Amino acid sequence: MTGTVKIFDTTLRDGTQGEGVSLSVEDKLKIAQRLDALGVTYIEGGWPGSNNKDIEFFIRVKDLKLKHAKVTAFGSTRRKETLADQDPNLNRIIEVGVSVATIFGKSWDFQVHTAIQTTLEENLAMIFDSVRYLKQNGLEVIYDAEHFFDGYKSNPDYALATIRKAEEAGADWIVLCDTNGGTLPHEITEIVKVVRQSVATPVGIHAHNDCELGVANSLAAVMAGATQVQGTINGYGERCGNANLVSIIPNLQLKLNYSVISEEQLASLTGVARYVSEIANMHMPVNQPYVGAAAFAHKGGIHVSAILRNSSTYEHIKPELVGNKQRVLVSELAGQSNLVFKAQEMGLDFDTNNQQTKQLIEQIKEMEHQGYQFEGADATLELLIRNAYGKLEEVFSLESFKIMVAKTMNQPVLTEAIVKVRVHGETCYNAAEGNGPVNALDNALRKCLLQYYPGLQNMHLSDYKVRVLDEKDATAAKVRVLIESSDFQNTWSTVGVSENIIEASWQALVDSIRYALLNQTRAASKQAESKERLGLVNH
Amino acid sequence: MTGTVKIFDTTLRDGTQGEGVSLSVEDKLKIAQRLDALGVTYIEGGWPGSNNKDIEFFIRVKDLKLKHAKVTAFGSTRRKETLADQDPNLNRIIEVGVSVATIFGKSWDFQVHTAIQTTLEENLAMIFDSVRYLKQNGLEVIYDAEHFFDGYKSNPDYALATIRKAEEAGADWIVLCDTNGGTLPHEITEIVKVVRQSVATPVGIHAHNDCELGVANSLAAVMAGATQVQGTINGYGERCGNANLVSIIPNLQLKLNYSVISEEQLASLTGVARYVSEIANMHMPVNQPYVGAAAFAHKGGIHVSAILRNSSTYEHIKPELVGNKQRVLVSELAGQSNLVFKAQEMGLDFDTNNQQTKQLIEQIKEMEHQGYQFEGADATLELLIRNAYGKLEEVFSLESFKIMVAKTMNQPVLTEAIVKVRVHGETCYNAAEGNGPVNALDNALRKCLLQYYPGLQNMHLSDYKVRVLDEKDATAAKVRVLIESSDFQNTWSTVGVSENIIEASWQALVDSIRYALLNQTRAASKQAESKERLGLVNH
């Protein structure tokens, strides 16, 4: 089974309807560039008729000089009892100067009566006039048949009549939308086949995920002859989201052998998915198929020992194909084999029989019992392992800290921290302000460390997460703090657990700085080596 | 298309392999009770041969007197070149005293060679001996054919031979496992049909979600004749998770008319899904199909106006069928119709043309622009709306607060807060300790308020989430704090945004308390009314 499938990305339009998703024009422009590089054919930028933010996007996207994706603007068919050329919403699409228009119309008789409240005949005219008007203005026209599957089930003849009208008027694509996401794959297969017999125009699919079948429905449509798939990155979208292109693309290309994007582009999929989740400020589920941090992560000791022998025993594809990588999680479920794997990653030879290893495993189990989680905090874990093997020098130690936060009505909050630490045998006593307690602590601590470790300048805390453990017992609830830090090369995560959020934050903060220093020492020694090799060192 | 499908829940076994999922024995017992009430047929409690925590579960679960679910213990076929009755792992299953055993064996020739490293003949013997031994001990035996689909694709005859062996030995069920989650629905359909022709034993499906097809694959198997579905609540499980029963059950029952559980049980689905996510301490995605907070949420103004006319225009089922409910989100995308809907929920008559409404919409847009999100903070939104309509009395106001956090090496952290607030025209100045700054603030504030509002005793902060906005710019990054609070009847969420985490927390804390008082006033007046009606009030 082969063929070509064109990808229509609507992250910037339908995706922004998702709960919690909100993109600035800047954000949209950044994402458009990544989508272009990923190799999608169409980028739906927004609905110019509905808000001005979208109009600005269409103006500014022209300067990006996208290499291969076509930008399209969304809108509805003309209003009832009006002329297409006088419909502001259609004219907006023309005015923003895109080469492709995507307009939706009603396919479901029930919808025609309840939602737009007109006659079935007028709805057909609305579709015909709107498509023809856009074609007359030289645009490629993608006709989205809203609620097509519900419409077909309720009145097949009428549903088919609506798309025939679009075809008659010259639509370049007829896209069947499962707007409510309530249709099942076998229904999609059957109905798409009927449609393919009823129209000659190429057919596309626009699925939603309300039954957790958005991906399956898209695949079913393609296997029934659809050649365009509409969806969003990470499946963002209203309610349960749109069909997730991040799963659909590799399924089509790696499993069904359709040609969709190039191998290099496919290898950028994980990067794109994570980038978009960052920009959209959405948390990416670790278990997201193909691209999630856990998609190729292995926990159970039994699996891991098999993985170490042959990864295809528990991996359906090579993670590298989609730009992801294999991980082994350390957890109470894990046998020693997991730690062995981690240690190998760190280049430590790890004797499972020696005393240190046994103690380390006990320590990790005990910490997990207290609420630590190392799955999201690889840096803290690495420090623990190196520590157990005496491969870690104590760079500084805390003597005390104090934090003061003061707020007076209508005044900004004042936050100060005082730290007293030992660095290289000397005591440093210093204070700093911050925009929060952790930030103030961080600033004061850096004041003490920077003179010894100027490299720390490049490092900053990039994310800070707080999780209340055993919520039930709120008064004395423990909190787990995850801190993500970055420098120019790397990003790493550390964890702290305590009943006190400040104490937990301090633990994660200290680990983050210790790890940063570890990184820098490594980088330095690497550089030295290569200089050595290049003979740049004077003997 | 109808028939009966039995649900096999493995949340407590395979589900705990999921990243971040970790359940105590207590947790497992609580979940088992909810699963029983939900109406699943089998509850897989764990792997007694692999860890003792699981053994304790099997002992204690007997005291629960589950009404209708059968508890089953998991294990593997006997080790190679041993006798079944001397296999510790099989004997553990018998010893823990369950009525149903679930054992897995190899179906894939490649796996036999690489993972267990034995001959194809010995593997067949391992399957036969193990099943027969458990049957001889009076157990119902479910045989999980691990990697069946990969095995079938690599060597169909051998894959089929393995399950025929299990049948020969008397297995009650043959469950086909897509262990790596790499199989597509059309392959499932085809292979399940072949299997049904090859064995007379009832067939089950065990799918994973690595291609985002776990639900679709389970449905495909059932439509091809499988009568047992294995999966987990919320799709917890290794890598990308197991097939999600929370979507499979309503799909089978509401869409395909299979009889699975009762209508009442189906209406408890949302409750169960959220309960399990709470216990497992996993964040439930708002967009989770059927049960997510956004599954029936509507954002775009155009949809909402249609919803107000007829909800089936944008909802594939009635949310109540699965115990969920319709929500309307307020966001910059939303027209006034969303706010109208919210106001109606609150019983306010909401004139979209008056000045207050216009100001309110401007205010909400401005706050969203600053980083507020009301989608997860309905209580704060309600306070804003009531405030705009002068329907909210100012219960107290801040004059100032101070927080001190002090830590000395090897000592616990000391956290104190001092607050100065005006309550009912009087000034209250008070201090309290806490296990963190927010907790200390909360405690000090309550000291001032409890004398006026004793009802606050029942309220507590049940969750606390911190989100760093625009991570890129970490030094001056804004944080959004979400606080979830509960009393005996309700749970509500409030939000605060500031560059200072303490300031943001204070905003959310204050809103939470104001909302608690609002609730209590309402409850009180309701009580008064009903007393009135019952004539309990002396005139």
Automatic annotation (TrEMBL), chains A, B:
Catalysed reactions, as listed in the record: pyruvate + acetyl-CoA + H2O = (3R)-citramalate + CoA + H(+)
Pathway assigned in UniProt: Amino-acid biosynthesis; L-isoleucine biosynthesis; 2-oxobutanoate from pyruvate: step 1/3
Gene Ontology MF, one: 2-isopropylmalate synthase activity
Keywords: Amino-acid biosynthesis, Branched-chain amino acid biosynthesis, Isoleucine biosynthesis, Transferase
The Pyruvate carboxyltransferase domain, residue ranges: 5-267
EC number(s) given by UniProt: 2.3.3.21
GO biological process assignments: isoleucine biosynthetic process; L-leucine biosynthetic process
InterPro entries associated with the record: 2-isopropylmalate_synth_dimer (IPR013709), AIPM/Hcit_synth_CS (IPR002034), Aldolase_TIM (IPR013785), Citramal_synthase (IPR005675), LeuA/HCS_post-cat (IPR054691), LeuA_allosteric_dom_sf (IPR036230), PYR_CT (IPR000891)
Pfam families per UniProt: HCS_D2, HMGL-like, LeuA_dimer
Keyword Hydrolase included in the entry's annotation: no
Enzyme class: transferase
NCBIfam families linked to this entry: citramal_synth (TIGR00977)
Family membership: Belongs to the alpha-IPM synthase/homocitrate synthase family.
Designated name of the protein: Citramalate synthase
